[in-house]
Amino acid sequence: xxxxxxxxxxxxxxxxxxxxxxxxxxxxxxxxxxxxxxxxxxxxxxxxxxxxxxxxxxxxxxxxxxxxxxxxxxxxxxxxxxxxxxxxxxxxxxxxxxxxxxxxxxxxxxxxxxxxxxxxxxxxxxxxxxxxxxxxxxxxxxxxxxxxxxx
Length: 151
Description:
Elements: E1 6-7, E2 25-28, E3 33-35, E4 43-49, H1 63-70, E5 74-81, H2 85-95, E6 100-104, H3 108-112, E7 117-118, E8 120-124, E9 130-135, H4 140-147
């Protein structure tokens, strides 16, 4: 597991396994509002990130990995914490990210979830309960191990 940490100061304590996460409403790269509620009934990976932690890596999952799990009911919401839209768009375009990228320009969701360092991953089951939380970048094999029992 690769850990690249940027500490964020003044945020709440992170949510823990077993918690029900708060709702959020964020814009995607097409200026469409997206809420966590829209993914109800799916397994959801919330990936809080900034490009400083992922410059030379594909972000979280490649197209083949995502397609395999999307067909089983997975949604990945990659929530960029605080970077300008132009920076995030360039990063997503260069890596051809296959999943939804959301902009948390004012750190609202980042604060709600108590994210104190990046990247941070929350895995939610189909009932919307946090089943896993990881600080740092993960390998595909680890993510498969976490997702398989939930899908």
